[in-house]
Structures are given as structure tokens and as C-alpha cells.
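step 4 of 6: structure.
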Amino acid sequence: MKAVAVFPHTREVKFIEQEAPRVTEPDHVKVRVLEVGICGTDKEICSFEYGTPPEGSDCLVIGHEALGEVIEVGPAVNKVKVGDLVEPTVRRHCSHPACNPCRAGYPDFCTTGDYTERGIKGLHGFMTEQVVDHERYLHVVPPELRNVGVLTEPLTIAEKAGTQVRHILDRLPWLAHYLQEQAMQHNATAVVLGAGPVGLLGAMKLLQTGFETCVYALPPAPNPGSDIVEAIGGTYYSQGRIPPETQQELFGHIHLIYEATGVSSLAFEMLNLLAPNSIFVMTGVPSLKGAIEVDADLLMRNIVLKNQLVLGTVNASAEDFDTAIKDIGIFRQRWPHALQAIITSRVAPEDAPDLLLGKSSGIKNVISFDTSARTTHRE
Ligand SMILES: [Zn+2]
Ligand SMILES: [Zn+2]
């Protein structure tokens, strides 16, 4: 069985052959992997910044954004059946009895750091022909989402942020009626930083929730990302093309900033533009490049005097995966071409090492184990 694996000790990324996994527990499900999305995390693992092989293994099979088809189920499995499309979650709980989040089923809030993550930390990932997992970690995807279901995992970042933001907005009693209707009805402005898959899917979620949404990103328009933003009814601003003094005017009164770049200098610059009572959501993980200068007095004054909140969020819960699958269905109905346009190439697993190690272009590149679904070129 083919797989794409990193070997941290010899610093290699290789296309390997390995034994197929077997159903050995009553709640095990065997899945034929159809597609696996590549993201910055995979590229960082392939440059050996992090990524931990399972105990006893010299390599880590990567891949954590997967869509697959169930091909075998154990005797105790009752929620998924052979033929179902499924999306697996990534993070698995730690084993510490005192870790309340993990014990409550929320390893995304694990406090010990001893969680595992498929394809990232201590467990093999999904960039292989077949995987076996427990039923409780698999979420059924409707068959009509076959071509876009692989975007579920990157959307769960926005879904978890959305869940947290709804809880936070409970602090503002005058918003209660909007929250009940689950829509801001264009009374609120959101700015997304970055036009990669996380940013674009975040913009879709914000527009769907009713936010007037701008996307602020580095490449000058027009480009594939800006085309998607315009197609979904957002406004694209190219970073650096707006003088700082007019930024406030252009963005207006910003109620929410959804950061999806991992560029800390940009994040803290934009934090100054946040309106009173508003929320800044950080999702990017910058590499540690040394200290940068920020006007800490101004930031702290604003945060206090404007009741602002800076929220960090990582990973997602099982509920967030279910919501993401539902929302991918809604986005597909509302913006079929724009959603599909986020996936810019589908390539064979043999080409994965090149794509992971080279400077890839495009928005979301997908490794396809299904020969009929592949595109022949990378855009
Ligand atoms: Zn990812
Ligand atoms: Zn834990």
C-alpha cells in the first residue's frame, strides 16, 4: 500500500510502500482514502520544523485533511456503513485522568499537551491508500459533497472560532436577538486576513453568518483568491495598497477580525483597527523569528478602554466537524464555482513529495488516490 512519509532522522520525505491496516477492534472502520489536502502544517513537517512519528516508527505518514470511503466495518459499528463518505478528525485525547477537556471529549482544549494528532504528532496520517480508525472519530459526508468534502477540515477552524465567538457575544445583551436568529444581517463588519484556504473558507462562513466581509491579503488583485472573494460577495483589499491612514475609513467599524496568515506584524497592526466591544480571532501559527516592535501601550489602552477581546483558537471539536460538513453543503449550493475554485489541483500521490518540498502555487492542492479525479496540471 502506497503512503507519503517523512523520516525526521534522515530528513527525507518519501513515497513508501507499507502494509495495509486491519480492522482489529469491534468499533474499527476501514476507509479507502480518496483525497488528502495539503496545507502549511504538512509543508512545515516536511521541512522538519515539527512532526513526531508514532512510538517505535522511524517515519510519520503525513496528511490530516482527508476524505475517504468506508470499505469495512467492525461488528460494533452502527453509525457508518460500507460505502459512506467520511471525514476523520485529527486530534485524539491525552491519557491524563486530570485533563478535564480531554475527559469531556474536547481534546482541542487539551491542557497537558500530550494529545496525539493523526499525520502530525504521534499517529500516522491519512496520505495513504487505506486507514483504520474508531467509528467515533469519523463524520459522514453526504455523497453530493464528493468533490469538495476535503475542504471540511480547514473549515473546522472557522467553525470552532464561530462557536467560541457566539459564546463570547453572549456578554453583549443587546445582540441577543441577532444571536437567536444566528445572523448578523449585515449590521456587522468582519475583516479576514489572508486569502489562503483557511481565510477564504472563513470569509464564506462570515458571509453566510451575515457579516459584511472584507479579505485583506498580500497578492495584488486580480488573482484566484480575489476572484473567489468577489464571487462570494466579499470585498478584496490588497495588503500594502491601502495607506494606513485610510484603512480605518475603508474597513469602517470592524467588529471581528479573523486572522489566517500567521504573520504577527500584520495581526498587531490590524488589532489597532478593531472597534469597541469587538473580537480579534487568531488562527495562524507564526514560526519564532525573533521579537518584533509593537506599540504595546496603545494596544493595551485599546483592549481595556474598548472592551476588546483577543481570542486564539486551534483544532476543532466533533460538533465543529459536523457543522463544517453542513456548511460545505450550504456553500456548495450558494457558491458552487467559488467553492470548487479553492481546490486548484488534484495530483497523484507519487507527486506529493515534490509538491510538499517545492514552492507550490495555487490555493488548496489535493493529493488524489482516485485516478479518475486527478487534474493533469498544477496551476
Ligand atoms: Zn491542514
Ligand atoms: Zn488532554
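step 5 of 6: annotate
 - The CA atoms of residues 43 and 324 lie 24 Å apart.
 - The chain has twelve helices and 19 strands.
step 6 of 6: archive
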